[in-house]
Amino acid sequence: MRFGRYFEEFDVGAVCEDRPGTTVTEYDEHLFRVLTMNHHGDTIYGESEVPAKTPSKSEDDRGAGYVGSRGYKQGGTIVCTFRRKVMVPKVSYGENRGGEQPGRPVPHE
């Protein structure tokens, strides 16, 4: 079982739904309200999009994937957005190391 994606599998423009959604309970809302003085009670969903990717200039076995994520509630109203840049191994990285990356979980029953 693979964990994550290789650089070649990052398709620019691809959108991945981050499921399942999370329903904010009364307890969650209470803690959040106490900390921030805001009020919630919604189901929050997330999705991530790959706006760009760039091969590494110094290492030929990896690249940088740019990921933009947004969270929205059940009616579609966006409640948060953020972008990040992640280092992603290429297929050659996995092949040179026996097909799996270090730190990937070993499936068991």
TrEMBL record:
InterPro entries: HotDog_dom_sf (IPR029069), MCH/BMMD (IPR052342). Residues 44-68 are annotated as: Disordered. It comes from the Bacteria. Gene3D superfamilies: Hotdog Thioesterase. This is Uncharacterized protein. It comes from Prauserella oleivorans. The lineage of its organism: Bacteria, Bacillati, Actinomycetota, Actinomycetes, Pseudonocardiales.
